[in-house]
Write a structure and sequence with these properties.
The protein has 674 residues and is of the alpha+beta class. It has 4 domains: 24-174, Immunoglobulin-like (Sandwich); 181-371, no CATH class; 405-491, no CATH class; 493-673, Glutaredoxin (3-Layer(aba) Sandwich), CATH 3.40.30. It has 21 helices and 17 strands. It has helices at 2-21, 180-194, 198-201, 204-214, 218-247, 251-257, 259-276, 286-294, 298-331, 336-356, 360-367, 372-399, 406-424, 448-464, 515-518, 524-529, 537-547, 561-571, 574-583, 615-627, 656-673, and strands at 28-36, 41-50, 54-57, 70-73, 81-88, 92-96, 101-106, 109-117, 124-136, 139-152, 156-161, 533-534, 551-556, 585-590, 603-605, 610-612, 634-638. Strands 3, 4, 6, 7, 9, 10 and 11 form a 7-stranded antiparallel beta sheet that branches. A 4-stranded antiparallel beta sheet has the order 1-2-8-5, with no helix packed on it. The protein has a 4-stranded mixed beta sheet with strand order 12-14-13-17. β1 and β2 (41-50) form a beta hairpin. The chain is globular and about 110 Å long.
Length: 674
């Protein structure tokens, strides 16, 4: 553990040192600014501040110029450039004896200005390079600076380069421009909200059992709670930040949705579940335990650190919508923002666990009076088995094995919760269970709380039974495999709105690209209402243009719990569904599917710094590079020219009325411009 901490600290030092020493700020510095000239034009200004004794060569004037500078724009924005690049400043002319040629240069500062076609509604990214040549003493040196300027609606712009974060223009609505205090406060609130997400909440039983066995005194409980909380903060802040910066903004999301990682989580929860049922005790070998005791509980801390690491990794599939924007900023060069943000997020996430960890010592004391504590552990064992199936389902969906289709998953959960109910009634005994307490007549009885837990378990099992025949099971739809994996579905299609009227839908052409492979991933609500969704951006855009409808981009994931919750709580509303079916063409862009792209469709992404070979990576690259977001679910709305109709998009927010209002606003804007 000590070596790991030293290695992590070394990586941080190398990372920041490399960025510090790579900046030759004493010689030439570049700054960027945007200014709206009219309703259709934006002026981009690149200013170069030149150090003393430096001669920066001007743009090329004649074909035979030897030394000159240049501004290069990415091919994606070439068609938006208006007129030629303008160069401003006090240009000087001299004969350079070394080159035996006349040269044009600047000594104090220079400005380059470029007009860009951009309406008030437009939102896109302008990327490019500043490549300059300059003379210092007798040396001729090159310098390159990459820039990224976000042209946002209502003249809100954010410029970034490869160095520290730059803030140009009106950036008050951008996360990158907020103060560190604002980022910390927002991330802290997000950490508190993350506690109620399914992935974090599901780890509480593991934590309870872990500290129940570990903490035998109040002092030990406090020590374990403190270690656990610090481990969560350390792992979230350090590993999340480093992985994002080094490997890109999708690394953590890919880990949480990777089939191998989910198989590991499945085996981990299965191991915990079997252990809680009494098959064996999870612990270190006796020789290791003796060494741990002799070293003042080193093994205990390693175990606590492992528990914290498990919480951090497993929770990313649910907490992504909260911290995703911080991860994107980290990958684009703004270091302190996500560092402070992830610290605030992990601090909030760790505090309740710290307070909760004070109780195991007291629970152990109470446990000596009877066997009720073992009943709690067995109950948690059943719950761990149910949760293990969720991770196995994630891997199954990701790889398309079809081993755990919807009806099989529901059947297993029904059996598990029926067995749990029978156990709580005292009809099933494990070898380490005590006898039920006896009343005054020497007859075994169950307590009232235990009876109510048994009723809840049986009720939940009965609730799931209609799902075997295709019932949507809205309350747990976020955990179930999609309806497309169910072989038998007798549930009728709901085609009426809240007033009982038929929800009509313009007949859309049948999806073609990726449909056969992706249709099993369609959400339950899509299958229920007979909605047509596409899985390829270009195909959906062509349909939207042909039918003169706005295009809705649904960035989602096969294993995205919050996506399923959004669809089950919001899309399923008849009023929302009526709007979606009648007014939009929808494309579901899954960011975590390993569907291979054709060789001709593969390309190298500078944003993700890797070759794009799968549909999931292609969709993730589209979301990050073009829409500056890395969270799911996230919805964007485009017109026929691919301009945004809703500038900021719409993330996870299960407010039905708010979503309806947003859809209505999008349709109104589209009808005005089409």
């Amino acid at each position: 553990m000590y070596k790991f901490i030293k290695l992590s600290a070394f990586l941080i030092m190398v990372f920041f040192a490399g960025n510090v020493f790579s900046q030759d700020s004493s010689e030439i510095e570049f700054s960027y600014n945007t200014q709206r000239l009219s309703d259709s034009e934006v002026l981009l200004t690149i200013k170069g501040t030149i150090g003393k004794g430096i001669q920066l060569f001007a743009l090329q004037r004649y074909p035979d110029d030897i030394m000159y500078s240049s501004i290069q724009f990415d091919s994606s924005v070439q068609k938006l450039l208006k007129d030629s690049l303008i160069q401003k400043g006090t240009v000087q002319k001299a004969m350079d004896p070394s080159l035996n040629s006349e040269v044009y240069f600047f000594k104090d500062s220079v400005e380059w200005q470029q007009k860009i076609n951009a309406s008030l509604r437009d939102s896109f990214l302008v990327k490019g390079n500043v490549n300059v040549m300059y003379q210092k003493g007798g040396a001729y040196l090159p310098k390159e600076a990459k820039f990224k300027i976000f042209i946002l609606p209502q003249a809100q712009t954010t410029a970034q380069n490869d160095g520290p974060e730059l803030k140009q223009g009106n950036t008050e609505s951008s996360v990158a421009s907020k103060s560190l205090l604002w980022i910390f406060a927002t991330a802290f609130a997000g950490g508190l909200l993350a506690l109620i997400t399914p992935c974090v909440y599901s780890m509480i039983p593991v934590t309870v059992s872990f500290f129940t066995k570990r903490s035998k005194t109040k002092a030990e409980g406090i020590k374990n709670a403190f270690s656990y909380s610090l481990s969560i903060i350390f792992i979230f802040t350090l590993l999340g930040f480093l992985i994002t910066v080094i490997f890109g903004p999708t690394a953590l999301n890919n880990l949480a949705t990777n089939w191998i990682a989910n198989m590991i989580f499945f085996l981990l929860f299965l191991l915990f579940g079997i252990s809680f049922l009494g098959a064996f005790e999870i612990g270190l070998p006796s020789s290791w335990s003796n060494k741990a005791d002799s070293k003042a509980g080193a093994g205990s801390f390693i175990g606590i650190f492992f528990m914290a690491l498990t919480l951090v990794v497993v929770s990313f599939s649910c907490t992504g919508p909260i911290i995703g924007n911080l991860l994107v900023i980290a990958a684009r060069g703004s270091y302190w923002g996500p560092l402070i943000g992830m610290f605030g997020f992990s601090l909030a996430l760790s505090l309740p666990f710290a307070f909760f960890a004070f109780f195991p010592g007291k629970l152990n004391v109470l446990g000596k009076a009877g066997g009720w504590l073992n009943s709690v552990k067995v109950t948690l064992g059943f719950l761990e088995l149910a949760l293990a199936l969720k991770f196995l389902s994630n891997a199954d969906l990701s790889q398309g094995w079809r081993l755990l289709d919807r009806e099989i998953f529901i059947s297993l959960w029904i059996v598990i919760f029926i067995l749990l109910g029978i156990y709580l009634l005292g009809k099933i005994k494990f070898h380490h269970d005590d006898e039920l307490p006896k009343n005054d007549y020497d007859i075994p009885y169950i307590s009232i709380p235990r009876l109510f837990f048994a009723i809840a378990s049986f009720s939940f099992a009965v609730y799931m039974i209609p799902g075997l025949w295709g019932a949507p099971l809205k309350g747990i739809s976020a955990f179930l495999p999609p309806m497309g994996t169910q072989d038998f579905n007798s549930a009728p299609t709901n085609s009426t709105n809240s007033k009982g009227h038929i929800i009509s839908s313009t007949d859309l052409p049948h999806p073609v690209k990726y449909y056969d492979r992706m249709r099993i991933n369609e959400p339950d609500v899509v299958t229920k209402y007979g909605m047509v969704t596409y899985f390829d951006y270009d195909e959906a855009l062509a349909i939207a243009r042909k039918l003169h409808k706005p295009l809705m981009l649904d960035f989602t994931g096969v294993n995205c719990v919050n996506c399923r919750k959004m669809e089950g709580a919001v899309w399923s509303d008849p009023g929302v569904m009526e709007r979606l079916k009648n007014n939009f063409v929808i494309v579901s862009l899954y960011v975590d599917v390993p569907v291979d792209l054709q060789p001709g469709d593969q390309y190298f992404s500078k944003t993700l710094n890797k070759k794009i070979t799968t549909l999931g990576d292609k969709n993730a690259d589209l979301q990050i590079s073009k829409y500056n977001a890395n969270t799911q679910p996230y919805y964007f709305f485009l017109d026929a020219n691919e301009n945004r109709l809703e500038p900021e998009g719409y993330g996870y927010d299960p407010d039905v009325q708010k979503f309806k209002s947003m859809l209505d606003d999008v349709v109104t804007k589209y009808n005005k411009i089409k």
